[in-house]
């Protein structure tokens, strides 16, 4: 069946959207970033190191953390492995092609992708081990684990390759939707038998790693509205997995958690995000499409707090670091919010725009800017 898929760029059209207003609306939607005010620093944070990998260009490049190491890539084809304990470079490679997606790594193999659908897999020494192609544009970091490299193209198709040889094993195709976001939609391994992935249209699936068939597929939310723009309802970011619970969030839909074995909904709350979410054993955090940061009880879904003081500052998806929820913003600030109250407890500054979700490598919080700089921060 032939079909045409149209995409919306989150930093262009999506910043003019509200849940009930289309980009073509005549209503003038002005987003004025909230001015920052001085805070009382309660949490001491220091900048431990800084490194560089290459600018992001028009793509979203997020670092990947495995143990004490962090992996990062830039649009110019550079890929680096950095020891997060000291910021020293372990290896650096240029794959010989412009990249459009950040890195996926299991600590041994590292994968990156291009807009032409090429995927490069690097070995433990940083040298290219093999190259393959998944027809379509890759803007989501590949996922590497359990002997598989999973590559996701912009149409929602997931292609599985043998991690050692590059042999294609299977392809998972989800149903097409008329309009969807052009943004990274990550994948999360669930043990050694499944991968979790969300899709345009608002569904979440657990896919059998061996066969490529779905164990289950369930809606996180349903499309609403009259126009195609109003009905955009994509799962944003990567699903989380803590214990037997997986959580996901959609644009113009809901945030919710599900039983990972059955897909049964545990709780749901109205929400809209195109960034994603973070989870620990007690709570789920997310940033909405107005840059409001919210925290929910992961067991009951009860709202715990909401911080509106970063509204319209284009904040990143959050990370939960100890007793803090951390987000970056369009001015390069890294904000640390109290895990208990949502109040600011620390603020650091980088030299560039932050759109990528921060990651945790050992005891270091790593942030990547659009200018390609990597910062390692240590809460004290």
Your description of this structure?
The protein starts with 5 loop residues before the first strand and ends with a strand. By secondary structure, it is mostly beta strands. It has a domain at 74-183: Lipocalin (Beta Barrel). It contains no helices and 34 strands. The strands form 9 sheets. A 4-stranded antiparallel β-sheet has the order 2-34-33-32, with no helix packed on it. It has strands at residues 6-8, 45-52, 64-66, 69-73, 78-83, 88-94, 101-105, 110-113, 118-122, 128-133, 143-145, 148-152, 158-162, 168-172, 179-181, 187-190, 194-198, 203-208, 214-219, 235-242, 245-250, 253-259, 265-271, 277-279, 283-287, 293-297, 303-307, 319-321, 324-328, 333-338, 344-349, 359-361, 364-368, 373-379. The protein is globular and about 55 Å long. It is found in: Cell outer membrane. Part of the outer membrane protein assembly complex, which is involved in assembly and insertion of beta-barrel proteins into the outer membrane. Belongs to the BamB family. It holds the Pfam family PQQ_2. Residues 76-307 form the Pyrrolo-quinoline quinone repeat domain.
Task: Tell me the layout of helices and strands.
Layout (H helix, E strand, L loop, with lengths): L5 E3 L36 E8 L11 E3 L2 E5 L4 E6 L4 E7 L6 E5 L4 E4 L4 E5 L5 E6 L9 E3 L2 E5 L5 E5 L5 E5 L6 E3 L5 E4 L3 E5 L4 E6 L5 E6 L15 E8 L2 E6 L2 E7 L5 E7 L5 E3 L3 E5 L5 E5 L5 E5 L11 E3 L2 E5 L4 E6 L5 E6 L9 E3 L2 E5 L4 E7 L1
Parallel strand pairs: 1-15
Antiparallel strand pairs: 2-34, 3-4, 4-5, 5-6, 7-8, 8-9, 9-10, 11-12, 12-13, 13-14, 16-17, 17-18, 18-19, 20-21, 21-22, 22-23, 24-25, 25-26, 26-27, 28-29, 29-30, 30-31, 32-33, 33-34
